[in-house]
Write a structure and sequence with these properties.
Chain B: Keywords: Membrane, Transmembrane, Transmembrane helix. Chain B: This is VanZ family protein. Chain B: It holds the Pfam family DUF6186. Chain A: Keywords: Membrane, Transmembrane, Transmembrane helix. The complex is a heterodimer of chains A (about 140) and B (about 70). Helices cover about 60% and strands about 0% of the residues of chain A. With about 140 residues, chain A is mostly helical. Chain A has one domain. Chain B has about 70 residues and is mainly alpha-helical. Chain B has 2 domains: about 30 residues; about 40 residues, no CATH class. Chain B has 3 helices and no strands. Chain B is flat, with a radius of gyration of 16 Å. The model of chain B has no long low-confidence stretch (mean pLDDT about 95). Chains A and B meet through helix 2, helix 3, helix 4 and helix 5 of A and helix 1, helix 2 and helix 3 of B.
Chain lengths: ~140, ~70
């Protein structure tokens, strides 16, 4: 017997639930946090994880949350932090003054040498990527 | 002095991101969240090509590579 379409609900896949995806992201982050910068392993790992997420995100394998069709004009408030960041990143990059007037990545490099902070950064990057894939 | 200025500038931008996101998440707010802005950007397509989606994924991948692999 056929059921009306509006009464059917697609069951979430097991790997699509937070109880599965969060531990997987934590494991991936812990591995990534052990790989030093400029190493072949780190480059291959980020190519694999990022490439995999891009592949999932461009296919229709994951259900997506609905996106707004229009943005109200108050969305322009987002340009304030973006502009402030862009001005400082642009100025520090153009000045090329090293540690005297550092870019964000130069400031972050010493912090990211610690494996715990590096793993946390990996987790932030991967979980945001996963969130984008589901959008 | 210039180093403090750079650190201060990046911290101010971080705080501003947090403030706008906080405003967006308040009940009845008309300001969209950053996730909604990203979702809107990702809707952009040129013909069958999801340009917005490819662009945002590419940007985010590059950011991770820049900070975590090099």
């Amino acid at each position: 017997m056929d059921h009306p379409r509006e009464l059917t609900v697609e069951a979430p896949r097991a790997w699509d639930r937070p109880v599965v995806s969060v531990p997987v992201l934590i494991c991936l982050s812990l591995v990534g946090g052990q790989l030093p910068s400029f190493s072949t392993a780190a480059n291959l790992y980020i190519l694999t994880t990022g490439g995999g997420l891009i592949w999932v995100g461009l296919s229709n394998r994951v259900p997506r949350r609905p996106a707004p069709r229009r943005l109200p004009s108050v969305a322009l408030w987002w340009l304030v932090p973006v502009t402030v960041f862009g001005v400082f990143e642009g100025a520090t990059f153009m000045a090329a003054a090293g540690d005297d007037f550092p870019t964000l990545s130069r400031l972050a490099d010493p912090l990211l040498e610690d494996s715990v902070i590096r793993s946390a950064a990996w987790f932030a990057w991967l979980s945001t990527f996963w969130g984008l894939v589901r959008r | 002095m210039m180093r403090a200025l750079a650190i201060g500038g990046f911290l101010v931008s971080l705080v501003l991101f947090a403030v706008v996101e906080w405003v967006a998440r308040r009940e009845g707010s008309r300001v969209p969240s950053l996730a909604d802005v990203c979702a809107f950007v990702m809707r952009y397509e040129v013909g069958p090509v999801p340009v917005g989606r490819i662009g945002l994924f590419g940007f985010w991948w590059w950011l991770g590579w820049h900070f975590l692999a090099r």
